[in-house]
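Let's do one together. I've listed all components of the complex below, 222 residues spread over two lines.
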Amino acid sequence: DAGITQSPRYKITETGRQVTLMCHQTWSHSYMFWYRQDLGHGLRLIYYSAAADITDKGEVPDGYVVSRSKTENFPLTLESATRSQTSVYFCASSAGGGYTFGSGTRLTVV
Amino acid sequence: AQSVTQLDSQVPVFEEAPVELRCNYSSSVSVYLFWYVQYPNQGLQLLLKYLSGSTLVESINGFEAEFNKSQTSFHLRKPSVHISDTAEYFCAVSKGYQKVTFGTGTKLQVIP
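Okay, and this is what the predicted structure of the assembly comes out as:
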């Protein structure tokens, strides 16, 4: 199916564990983004990528790692999960003129 | 740096009444402006955007927004809301096509 898909939709993990959130897009958009959404903060940019093998930090990158070996994939890894990383994570892609968002991953760190 | 302010966190309105959701931005350069809508348990969807040209932009479901450079505003309006418009609305700004900055959102609650 065409579009942008995130997996998993829901994830519960323990403090200190590594967890990876997946994002896949089928349009070959050059730009991809990771945001987290929290009450009272709206959406905050974690990392973004302008193309394969090109990534850059956003507003709140600490504790996260990204990679982009292929244009269509942009995984987000929490190296050692903390409770403050409990959030809803959205991936987005863009070719210009606005984003297309995935459905999100609700991550709970216990 | 650019920023977006949505002063109203919640806006209740009766069905078929008009609504305005306020958005103000700050930026030292020309910007692109967006409104996104988020329904429960879903991602954000682009509602409308201003990139250039006419300052009044419209969506397919009856919303409109007007870019006002002198007041640095991009308020969203609809003359008659429907129950299905109940959602959270996010205003956003970018100085190019990328790296969009979002406001904190306004929850529109349409009352039957």
